Amino acid sequence: MPYYNFTLQDLLNIEDEAPLDDFFCPSTGLLLWPLVRVAFFREIISDLVYSTAISSVSNGPSAFQKASALFRAELWNIGLQYAGMRASLLCVTDSVADRFIDGRRFNRLSDPLLNCYDGNSVCLLEQYDWKWPFPRHKSRVLLHGPSQARIAVIGHLRARIPNVKAATVELVNAACSAAQRILGWNLTSNRKLAFEHFVARKIGGLPAALALYRNMVESIQPSFLLASGASYGPLMPLIYAAREVGACVVEFQHGAISRGHDAYNFGDRIFQSKVYRSALPDYFLSYGRWWESQVNLPVKMVTVGNPARPEGGGVGRGGRPFIIILSDGIEFNKYAELAHSMIDYAKQRGLRILIRPHPLERQRVSSMTFDDEDIIALDDSSTIYDAVSGAEIVISEVSTGLFDAVGLCKKILAWRTAKSIFAYPVLPFSSFSSIDELFEVLESADQSEEERLGDELWEKNWESNFKNFIQMVE
To answer: What is the pLDDT of residues 5-27, one digit of tens each?
Structure first.
């Protein structure tokens, strides 16, 4: 059952209550809380905010397909290493952000930045759903899977070592005890045992992770580590290794950040902790000033802009006018039910209702059909900008697409649920909290403040801003 009065600050009070920055790896001496912080918080968020468990459920490949993908990735990495990997910039990103341009994969998050960078670069790429991510516009790519697999296997093997088990129990008990005191929340015995196994594998794999990433950065010798999601915590051993060779660590914004985002807001104790600060990037490159005002991150903010946002907007679709609903990657059926509740409204006005799956669920729902297919259909646009361009109405709870739609559609509506209120305590859009209220808002001509934001959301001239940043820190 979602709790509407539960906020991120309630979670952050756990960090102020418990000395979670005092637990260190017995083998490497590295801080442990960054490795598991977001995972622990999302156990709580899953119970108190979401109607279903937070998970990436998909019809993924079999174990054999994964093993085959890993073997192929390992051969690819060996070939690249043989050819030489030295580069002044190492970029970490995920193939979930890939799109096809002229028959080759182009990463909409990282490739524009790499095209703008004058020096040599190597990309460390996560393989989304284990799909072979080639051919690419940027071919100097190391695949992250083989390193992650080694770390996972070693972590599993070392999870039962006494000092690893002891460190695990101490950290998990401290976090759970603080959550009980602050929130009255407990993990069930089975879930606590599963979470302890997860933490033990993370701690057990930390020496291998540090050794692998040290070897990687010593081979590449980057001046910059440019990473997506560097503040989440799991990239901590790579951040440490990069700093050892003198690299400047930079995170680029890859989606929405807000006052309810657990990875970009910290309690006072952690915010002021020098040891935790060493696990975070040196700089954060934001889309615009509004985003910077939404977070409490002990990192230097640099306003750059959004490289993925086309200056002229998306390519609008022809045919009937449409409403588009943006799913969140977790509760697709909830958005399908919302679409069904709007069928009569759409029919009366000659509208279609499109549902755009989140990239994490696209494969899982791609074969889904609807009873009234003349009214409701899945959106298959290649980009979010193409999807929302020209829409009569764009609706979502927590999707970054709400912000992407500014200036590209007629009306933007935020669905205010426990989830969206937690994630976005402040939103610049008109909103509704029930179906009846939705229809009232649809008939209203009131303007939200979205147009007022202007450049605060999307800083202009991202290319020159990025180049100026690189020159500043070189």
So the answer is: 789 999 999 999 999 999 999 99
Q: What is the CATH number of the domain that holds 377?
A: 3.40.50.2000
Cβ proximity of 287 and 252 under 8 Å: no
196-244: pLDDT as tens digits:
999 999 999 999 999 999 999 999 999 999 999 999 999 999 999 999 9
- Range list of β-strands (E), 25-176: 89-94, 98-101, 104-107, 121-126, 141-143
Q: Positive or negative CA dihedral for 91, 227, 458, 136?
A: positive
> For residues 430 and 394, is the Cβ–Cβ distance under 8 A?
no
Structure confidence by residue, pLDDT tens digits, 66-92: 899 999 999 999 988 766 789 999 999
Looking at the structure, do residues 443 and 463 belong to the same domain, yes or no?
no
**What is the token pair recorded at 91?**
């970029």
Examine residue 135 and say whether the peptide bond preceding it is cis (omega within 30 degrees of 0). Answer: yes
φ, ψ of residue 139 to 5 degrees: the values are: -95, -10
Residue 237 in any domain: the answer is yes
For 415, the 3-state DSSP assignment is strand
Phi, psi of 400 (to 5 degrees): -60, -20
Note whether 348 and 294 are same-domain residues.
Answer: no
Evaluate whether residue 314 is within a structural domain: no
Residues of the domain holding 347: 322-454
Rg (CA), the chain: 23
d(Cα 245, Cα 230) in Å, to the nearest integer? 18
pTM for the model = 0.92
What does the mean pLDDT of the chain come to? 91
Instruction: Tell me: pLDDT of 254 over 70.
Output: yes
The crossing angle, in degrees rounded to 10, of helices 33-48 and 162-183 is 40
Kindly state the tokens that stand for 398: 């927590």
Strand arrangement, sheet containing 393-396: 376-378, 352-356, 322-326, 393-396, 412-415, 430-432
User: Rounded to the nearest 10 degrees, how much is the dihedral formed by the CA atoms of 300, 221, 122, 143?
Assistant: -100
Pick the closest to residue 352 from 372, 319, 375, 380 (CA basis): 375
